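Re: [help] complex structure
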Amino acid sequence: VNERPRLDAAVLAALRAVAGEAHVIDDPELAASYETDWTRRFSGRASVVVRPGSTAEVAAVLSVCHDAGIPVVPQGGNTGLVGASVPRRGEVVLGLTRLDGLGDIDTVSAQVTAGAGVTIARLQDHATAAGLLYPVDLASRESATVGGTIATNAGGIRVLRYGPTRARLVGIEAVLADGSIVSRMGGLTKDNSGYELAQLFAGSEGTLAIVTAARLQLVRATPHRATALLGVADTEAALAILQRIRHSVTDLDAIEAFYHDGVEMVCRHTSATPPFATPPGCYLLVECAGREDPSERLVNALAECPEVIESAFATDRAQQQQLWRYREAHTESINAEGIPHKLDVTLPLTTLAEFEATVRERVAAAVPGARPILFGHLGDGNLHVNILGPAPDDDRATDVVLRLVASLGGSISAEHGIGIAKAPWLHLTRSEADIAAMRAIKRALDPGGILNPGVIFGHDA
Amino acid sequence: VNERPRLDAAVLAALRAVAGEAHVIDDPELAASYETDWTRRFSGRASVVVRPGSTAEVAAVLSVCHDAGIPVVPQGGNTGLVGASVPRRGEVVLGLTRLDGLGDIDTVSAQVTAGAGVTIARLQDHATAAGLLYPVDLASRESATVGGTIATNAGGIRVLRYGPTRARLVGIEAVLADGSIVSRMGGLTKDNSGYELAQLFAGSEGTLAIVTAARLQLVRATPHRATALLGVADTEAALAILQRIRHSVTDLDAIEAFYHDGVEMVCRHTSATPPFATPPGCYLLVECAGREDPSERLVNALAECPEVIESAFATDRAQQQQLWRYREAHTESINAEGIPHKLDVTLPLTTLAEFEATVRERVAAAVPGARPILFGHLGDGNLHVNILGPAPDDDRATDVVLRLVASLGGSISAEHGIGIAKAPWLHLTRSEADIAAMRAIKRALDPGGILNPGVIFGHDA
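Output below.
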């Protein structure tokens, strides 16, 4: 499995003719960064890495691979967390970061056209410079790309207010398995003329088409921001606050939850010190953003929440970033202690507290010594369950957690996708009929099964 | 074509066994209302009308039709405008209004589960009673159903603020061509586990699945409303106002445009009198709605618009409804003068004024004596072009208008769908590759082609 598989010489020559010698990579050192993902849990050998420089080149590469029956793994910033962006069985890796064209902002429609390889941070800066906002935001913003975030329908910290990536999609340009290009980039926000392929491709994890560009809807800028870090007794109390303020505070941007074990880990691996003298049962990070300063509204709203035990407010950017560090440094701090199993789940808000109260002991019972760290987007019922301890191929804890989620009416993937990592559990929350319909669509658009094989459906699909 | 086609006796018996004698209708008088749509332009004979009372019955009906290879036309409120809800060639009409279950409002998630047959008006009232809002709103609200508005991804007057029906869809229950039921009704707002069938089915006009129920996201109520009717010089001026206020007024709910020929017609057929002594070149209806009274903001914002020549403000419900009548009574007034060709198009805001200024003479040149009446949702670039004069099967004016739209970068259907009416022009704004991908999906989910045949792709598909 670790041997680099060889491509047929004619195929290799055809790929080089399309993308240019420099962009067809089989040197092990150069290929390495494309073969292991950010989690370090997933890695494999590519037969070759191809980095096309345009949609036409993507189409030509797909055409070559299609005719030769060679499977392809599309890759953006390689920040995915479910093993869908690295090769498994000697596939061709299609590196898409050279598709980095970024159009002028159309201020009339508040839209922009971005290539699949544009990073989220660059897109955000571009929008901000025009007085607008690209509201999809996530910790991996410096590497994650437009194409990757569409393929995974990425969520992040502002879904509560703005929805996930699919809510930004006005149009898409994509290459199908046979190399044909579908495109609907006119920027029309109302266009009911046939099936909405953009919405089908969003979240399909590179199994139906390769996204090469998108027309994206921006929103008004919200330059004024107020942030509060709260200490509360437990998840139940956090949910009570969520319910109260989501109805009273209009500018609510984010409500994130985490716990003391995570904060301790963050303090161990960064320069942070614990925010409160007495560790609370649950931390809540609440942020509002608006065209006017929302501080007073936020302070007033929280003053009416008896659940708040401790609180720290921040109105300037530096203080705000300090509060956010407790939340955002979770990932790197966990990574510093080992390679976690990263499970990203949603629960109905009605069963979320029960899940949080139960999951740790279930994991401990399944894998003695395993350490689950929980954090996530409370406003969306979305928790990230990171489990340190089990070996990368030990799925016992995963199995226990995902079955618990399903039994409580949740989903085994909130925002990361199914990928390779969760394919064996898809049946827990999608019915046989659902999966049959999905497979039929997959076969229709990719009859040879060359697009990201194994992802969503598993390798035996 | 006008003869009622006969179903095989065994099939008829099977349908009766599923839905009950009373709900399998072949009496011509009882069937008539299912065979002609609201436009009166489209009508045909059904072999039989079946009115299942549950999702299981829909599945059983589909199963019978699937096995016998009998095509099915799904029908909700029969308020569609593109001929997709009435039989064309002796299909079975599947009347879905008995699926009228409406769940309690979940105030924690601000969601509700509604059967496909629930009317939009009933859903709106149900949400309002719980202090929430179902923001999809359209003139046909008393008849249009949840299922029909999902199948067409209905837009309406508040798309500007809340998006079309697809933006409301948290989950869907639907029956596939073979009678299998797909369902994802857990109400999770974040759920990236496989393909998002709900978003694929939204706007697919009954060609991929029969929607039987949906989980819908409600929004905060906006009990305070301010409405202004403006007279401006022309469409250019109206667009200038749109640009200015869409960035300065946060509570903007609707911006509708219409013209003097339409207002004259409304005054002829209703008790309304012209709103302004001197008819302006373009009328603009602007509405804001919020949790606090938006009147002052609206008045102030419009005071900064030099384009405003005439204005009338309304803050109480009765006055507001009077202003809205000028806009909403367009449809009934046009119908009172004949059977119009109803074309619903979007233009980029940059070419909309050019379209409005050009379309009348183009239509007149194509069909001497034809009378085009324009009105629509200016904020979305969406105009409804109603053409009186041409016979129902005379497509010359349609052809001219849709080609003009395509040449200006617009779409031939903004919110009504393609249906039967626009299928011959689909290629104007969807590419060959787009249509091929759509056909592949259609074949995958409905290999026998029994779901709403002829719709979107035409009868030769």
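The first helix of chain A runs from residue 9 to 19.
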